């Protein structure tokens, strides 16, 4: 068995097979056992009085939770990881770790909508002021900094709108002003973007997406660098919002095949995006690996790959009825939130109403596409028939594939 101390001598796919388990301590079983529980029995009075040991009560963790935490810490190169019952839980945990009453925080205008709701609702209630910034602002973010600015929150690419941010520029301004950075790294995962290596203080992943990979799991993972780790851990301990042990095991299992599924999603999405770029109905393809995507040059510079989620903007002039006929009658793509699973999804993107700092420049309908594991020919045919329905004002009967 590869020793954990020599792990970095091995390739990343080998590392993914080794982390978070130890057959020598598992009676030889390949996978770790499932620990569930509240109470841990202690032998020493002193241990109980001083809450000693990594596992002194269920809320402090379990070997199952620790396996996933340690594996993720290894993968992200952070100083430590805590888990949450959802990706949104990780976002709240990260923000509550670094922001306090009276602070001003800067959030990208391309952010995942529930993050916006958290900032405008709960955080505002606790006296934290949110200002949204243009995702393509780069080092000009310094013009938005106030004496009480404590956090810059990044999400790259932006949810649905796909802007890649100039992360090194934002990190460098933040460091100069003693401001902490949080990155929602869900799209890239640590395999395609090294958040802590680029100076991000707290990085989070909705493991619900690619780590789970089968649309049967909600989990969030938050890692921190050396400086922010003690504060992140103590915020987590104060709230004790932890996922169930079964879900940790599902996430660990997903980790073994993460690179395979990501690579396949990447391959299919690149193929499909190129095909869509040639379609008459499509105005723009917003995929970080394509030139039309804002921040494409930063993706080329900083990222090691692209995953299976991208958006398209349709030409202006199609009707709402046409759009409904297109998406509601699809056979392979379905309407639904979340992504990173084995099934293809299509969802409308409509950021115009929410935007505060960066106007959405497009007039046509926009659609976000999650590419699953189905055959590319089936996906293209489904879209092709959908485009035909889009172009007809009113469709009479559902088309059959
Ligand atoms: C889905 C998603 C989340 C939230 O994850 P949940 O587990 O669904 O709460 C956070 N950030 C991004 C970018 C997401 O796509």
UniProtKB/TrEMBL annotation:
PROSITE patterns: CYS_MET_METAB_PP. It catalyses: L,L-cystathionine + H2O = L-homocysteine + pyruvate + NH4(+); an S-substituted L-cysteine + H2O = a thiol + pyruvate + NH4(+). Pfam families: Cys_Met_Meta_PP (PF01053). The modification N6-(pyridoxal phosphate)lysine is found at residue 209. Keywords: Lyase, Pyridoxal phosphate. Its cofactor is pyridoxal 5'-phosphate. GO terms for biological process: L-cysteine catabolic process to pyruvate; transsulfuration. InterPro entries: Cys/Met-Metab_PyrdxlP-dep_enz (IPR000277), Cys_b_lyase_bac (IPR006233), Cys_met_metab_PP (IPR054542), PyrdxlP-dep_Trfase (IPR015424), PyrdxlP-dep_Trfase_major (IPR015421), PyrdxlP-dep_Trfase_small (IPR015422). GO terms for molecular function: cysteine-S-conjugate beta-lyase activity; pyridoxal phosphate binding. Pathway: Amino-acid biosynthesis; L-methionine biosynthesis via de novo pathway; L-homocysteine from L-cystathionine: step 1/1. It comes from the Eukaryota. PANTHER family: CYSTATHIONINE BETA-LYASE-RELATED. Belongs to the trans-sulfuration enzymes family. This is Cystathionine beta-lyase. It comes from Saccharomyces kudriavzevii (strain ATCC MYA-4449 / AS 2.2408 / CBS 8840 / NBRC 1802 / NCYC 2889). The lineage of its organism: Eukaryota, Fungi, Dikarya, Ascomycota, Saccharomycotina. The gene is SKDI06G1270.
């Amino acid at each position: 068995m590869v020793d954990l101390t020599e792990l970095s001598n091995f390739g990343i796919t080998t590392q993914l097979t080794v982390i978070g388990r130890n057959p020598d301590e598992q009676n030889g079983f390949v996978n770790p056992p499932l620990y569930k529980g509240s109470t841990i029995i202690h032998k020493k009075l002193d241990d109980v009085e001083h809450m000693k040991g990594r596992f002194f009560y269920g809320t402090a963790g379990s070997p199952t939770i620790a396996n996933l935490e340690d594996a993720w810490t290894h993968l992200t190169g952070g100083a430590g990881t805590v888990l949450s019952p959802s990706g949104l839980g990780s976002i709240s945990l990260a923000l509550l770790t670094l922001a306090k009453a009276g602070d001003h925080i800067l959030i990208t205008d391309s952010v995942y909508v529930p993050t916006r709701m958290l900032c405008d609702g709960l955080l505002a209630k606790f006296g934290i002021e949110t200002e949204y910034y243009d995702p393509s602002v780069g080092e000009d973010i310094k013009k938005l900094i106030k004496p009480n600015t404590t956090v810059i929150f990044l999400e790259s690419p932006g949810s649905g709108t796909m802007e890649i941010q100039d992360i090194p520029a934002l990190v460098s301004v933040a460091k100069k002003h003693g401001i902490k950075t949080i990155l929602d790294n869900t799209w890239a995962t640590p395999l395609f973007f090294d958040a802590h290596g680029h100076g991000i203080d707290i990085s989070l992943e909705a493991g619900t997406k690619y780590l789970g990979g089968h649309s049967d799991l909600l989990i969030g993972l938050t890692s921190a660098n050396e400086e922010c780790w003690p504060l992140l851990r103590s915020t987590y301990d104060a709230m004790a919002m932890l996922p169930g042990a079964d879900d940790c095991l599902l996430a660990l299992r997903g980790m073994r095949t993460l690179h395979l599924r990501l690579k396949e999603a990447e391959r299919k999405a690149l193929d499909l995006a190129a095909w869509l770029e040639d379609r008459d109905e499509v105005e723009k393809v917003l995929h970080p690996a394509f030139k039309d995507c804002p921040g494409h040059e930063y993706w080329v510079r900083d990222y090691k790959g692209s995953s299976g989620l991208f958006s398209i903007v349709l030409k202006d002039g199609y009707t709402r009825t046409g759009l409904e006929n297109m998406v509601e009658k699809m056979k392979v793509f379905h309407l639904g939130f979340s992504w990173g699973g084995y099934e293809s999804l299509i969802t409308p993107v409509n950021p115009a109403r929410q935007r505060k700092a960066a106007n959405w420049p497009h007039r046509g309908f926009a659609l976000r596409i999650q590419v699953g594991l189905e055959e590319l020919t089936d996906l293209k045919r489904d879209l092709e028939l959908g485009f035909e329905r889009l172009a007809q004002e009113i469709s009479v009967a559902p088309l059959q594939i």
